[in-house]
């Protein structure tokens, strides 16, 4: 049975290969240009959450999502799950194909001379032709690339795969292919074919023998001129060094234990990260001495070299992840006291299996104290506040994201700190942020719990940007609050200089309001009649509501608006208006109410409410049959009969007026009571 089944599968595969070959040979030349694909028609292979972007000559992690929902797409199977799912990059015919039939004419130049090297010439031609017969998983592979496929084709390009034993309808999984973009790829969109193999139960075909669909996913290849190296994609460096750390310090000749933090600034993971401590100071730098050194003091690399290498390796570093390179270093006995600029070389790869790696240089300072190497004839003293020869660290600019800060919502504060001195540098700089307090509580809280930053050095006229995620307390009043920036740093001739700077952060509150005590009298009127509606608008927020008004608009009533005015926080504005029926209600009698108000800047906001008022056709009066009346009845009897009816109508009208006035009086009394209570609280 298995032999027969395999024979059937073999025939089916042969037919598929033959049809694919005929399809390829009949295609017109240059059919596979870069293009943007409508992926909405895909059934199984879908775009990742972000557009995939690659750069010529660089490694790339190409991501797709796989799954189906039995709603969208062209090839939905009518089943609640599929099995034996295999996902691969497809060597699709639109990309990898011969431009012409090699039996007629080769599309590439034969490197051998037909006259001088006939055997080699024919062998090359025959080898090219035989490439047509090679098949893999039902997809033909050709020896000549038409030049449109944007990825490098190597041994792993079309063999990487993801397998899922079962995919439920509505379930989606992410698949990542590690590839390299061809160096000659032009800037454009490219549709990348992906092969999707699967089984529809109860079928259980072997691998690659079941149904297979090829669907395309877009990538965008940027021009090679846009990026010199991968680190330049984010702030020119792949890592931020020393964030949130004090400058490591040690005393000679003891062993110094310290670590250096590196945070991944890129939006993708970095692999095979290696941090190497160089045994020479950073190029173009020198130790910044904190004391006059003896002539015998060493001012180079401050540590004894007692290890064969100083590499620290990490398999993978996720975006925004911080790693720490730990070191245990013996300080040289004759090291001069000062700040030493240590140099680190960091290498990494953009994909786990990438052939190319990238290197970057980083500098971080350590502080060494060695009194035995200080020249006591000229000790450096503590900073004198009256001596003006020091660096001037200023707040050059700041911004927040988002631009408007709202109470109770996180925001990021960006501070640009600048050394405004013309010729004096600063080192070992500590910036500490301190929030203004209200009722003994800080207005701003720091997401990380700490508002301190360490900057190794700032040269004259050099700037650095600090960023911190914060949140304003939910209950604060809308106004500006102060953040104090405490500075502590060393200048070349002095240490522990201190300064304070301040920045004002405006904090806004969202407007909040509610509606209460709807009263509608009467709830049903005839066309041409009026109904009275009253309700309160409560300002439940912390900001003043300006120019509040209620607008009533519906085909069944005359458009009416009621101006309430300004409503202070915690107070209520009353709406009292008459609605006139102009047409019978067509639905359930719902009348839309739009409550409009403005903020302090005149920006208009609105809130929608509704009430129910039924408008009916007027009831026609009954005609009086004069012919049927008894003309012998005395004329005085007519008014006597109508008198009770007239009195009843007058009494009902008077009752309605009295009820409305009583409700208005009650509302006025309530408002007066609230105002008295507010005055008492004040």
Automatic annotation (TrEMBL):
Region annotated Disordered, chain positions: 95-118, 662-682
Residue spans crossing the bilayer: 642-660
Residue ranges, compositional bias (Basic and acidic residues): 97-106
Coiled-coil zones: none
Name of the featured protein: CARDB domain-containing protein
Entry keyword annotation includes Transmembrane: yes
Compositionally biased residues, Acidic residues: 671-682
Keywords, alphabetical: Membrane, Transmembrane, Transmembrane helix
